């Protein structure tokens, strides 16, 4: 069945009447919508904005221009459905002041001084890095993140006697004893895991806060040795002992395991011979090495850690160690790390380092190696004459004056600055001063008194680059001020 469509011709007058009716209908709907918006805005206390028609901006075309383009543009008619359109009139809004009928309360905000507020000042400084791109922004950010270090030092701590120190150290056992006991019990439950890792050929390293000596001794003596073959030997080395040397450890291994001395003098050759000797007794010789504090002062050399890694690489040796300094792995390269074959365990015990610090003077921690302390200076100065004390007091005062004159721009770190040859005092100048103050009468007696201070490391007598004799005290400013206040200003 064919679909027939008939087009009915429409008169222009009829079409114009229909357009006029649609236009009136649209205008009525727009007016109704506008009235609704105005009514809602009046509820909020706002008045509507009036729009005025600007008849001067009508877009009218000249008749001649229309006639000139008539042969390009088809005349609108009913057939192509494009009725005539009137020119658009631009509407320009006329704004009036907004009137608010409901009262509005403003919050009072206190003023902030950006110069006094440290947080805003730091944020403003860090925001500057956003203006830099590429590598310049990276270095700018790193520079702005730098914070000034504290000027506090260990020398500012109050002086205590050794009896007081040990009494205070024992107080640590009274803090949280039940919690520490439960923590140790938890670590003991991991003994089987540690044994499994050793049997699989790994070495164990333990780190964390607190002494790990008792825990590791209990693991090796009461658990590990009983579960290894009967011919297994065990060696315990204390790295916190300043007299420990890898050569002593190698001699002990040869003596305990093979009942003879090392065949080679050099430690590298001794380790190589030891590896070959173990290969001859693959199933009959086994050894456990427990090394407390692999980061001890006596082992802080790269060649010593190379020897220890060679021992750890032997299959028949089970290597167990502890460390307290997290910077220790910086000694190890990839080859040494592969030889150690470590598995790391955190065994924080919170126990005091009573045994570990017994091999070093704990009261001199954080001070220079040459520092004799106020007690040592007291004993040295008490055995000298009043002129010698007066000489050393004047030397301290002139040394401090020399340092203060050289660090005008870095006054914050003054207490940490140490006397050196750059801040030294001329020998001849100080001698003339002492002669003028009637401290000494001749150069021979002057040098005799200075020799006492030099022998006790309380003063250095040397020559500068120009060959002139100079004097300086190799202590920090805090140490010098403490000696001056406690011993010489009485």
From TrEMBL:
Top-rank taxon, per record: Eukaryota
Keyword Nucleus listed? The answer is yes
The record's region (Disordered) falls at 1-23, 45-93
Q: Which Pfam families match?
A: RecA-like_ORC2 (PF04084), WHD_ORC2 (PF24882)
Q: Which InterPro entries match?
A: ORC2, RecA-like_ORC2, WHD_ORC2
Renumbered to this chain, the Polar residues biased-composition regions fall at 1-12
- Give the multimer and partner information: Component of the origin recognition complex (ORC).
Q: What is this protein called?
A: Origin recognition complex subunit 2
Q: Which organism is it from?
A: Brettanomyces naardenensis
């Amino acid at each position: 069945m064919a679909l027939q469509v008939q087009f009915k011709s429409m008169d222009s007058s009829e079409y114009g009447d229909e357009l006029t009716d649609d236009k009136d209908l649209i205008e009525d709907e727009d007016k109704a919508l506008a009235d609704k918006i105005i009514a809602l805005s009046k509820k909020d206390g706002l008045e509507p904005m009036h729009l005025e028609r600007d008849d001067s901006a009508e877009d009218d075309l000249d008749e001649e221009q229309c006639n000139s383009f008539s042969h390009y543009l088809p005349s609108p008619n009913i057939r192509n459905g494009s009725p005539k359109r009137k020119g658009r009139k631009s509407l320009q809004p006329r704004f009036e002041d907004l009137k608010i009928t409901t009262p509005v309360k403003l919050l009072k905000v206190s003023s902030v001084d950006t110069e006094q507020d440290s947080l805003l000042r730091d944020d403003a400084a860090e925001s500057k890095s956003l203006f830099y791109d590429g590598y310049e922004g990276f270095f700018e950010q790193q520079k702005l993140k730098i914070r000034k270090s504290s000027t506090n030092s260990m020398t500012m701590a109050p002086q205590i006697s050794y009896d007081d120190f040990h009494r205070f150290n024992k107080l640590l056992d009274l803090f949280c004893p039940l919690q520490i006991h439960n923590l140790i019990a938890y670590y003991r439950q991991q003994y089987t895991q540690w044994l499994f890792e050793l049997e699989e050929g790994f070495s164990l390293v333990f780190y964390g806060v607190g002494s790990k000596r008792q825990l590791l001794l209990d693991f090796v003596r009461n658990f590990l040795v009983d579960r290894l073959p009967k011919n297994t030997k065990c060696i315990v080395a204390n790295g916190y002992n300043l007299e420990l040397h890898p050569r002593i450890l190698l001699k002990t291994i040869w003596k305990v395991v093979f009942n003879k001395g090392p065949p080679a003098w050099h430690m590298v050759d001794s380790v190589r011979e030891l590896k070959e000797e173990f290969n001859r007794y693959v199933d009959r010789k086994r050894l456990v090495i427990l090394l407390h504090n692999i980061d001890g002062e006596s082992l802080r050399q790269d060649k010593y850690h190379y020897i220890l890694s060679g021992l750890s690489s032997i299959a028949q040796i089970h290597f167990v160690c502890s460390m307290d300094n997290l910077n220790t792995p910086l000694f190890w390269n990839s080859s040494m790390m592969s030889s150690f074959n470590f598995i790391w365990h955190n065994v924080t015990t919170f126990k005091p380092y009573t045994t570990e610090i017994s091999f070093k003077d704990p009261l001199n921690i954080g001070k220079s190696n040459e520092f004799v302390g106020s007690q040592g200076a007291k004993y040295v100065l008490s055995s000298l004459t009043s002129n010698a004390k007066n000489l050393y007091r004047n030397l301290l005062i002139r040394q401090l004056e020399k340092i203060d004159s050289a660090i005008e721009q870095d006054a914050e770190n003054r207490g940490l600055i140490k006397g050196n040859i750059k801040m030294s005092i001329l020998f001849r100048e100080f001698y003339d001063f002492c002669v003028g103050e009637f401290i000494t009468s001749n150069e021979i007696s002057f040098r005799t008194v200075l020799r006492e201070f030099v022998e006790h490391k309380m003063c250095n007598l040397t020559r500068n680059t120009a060959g002139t004799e100079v004097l300086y005290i190799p202590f920090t400013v805090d140490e010098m001020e403490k000696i001056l206040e406690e011993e010489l200003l009485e």
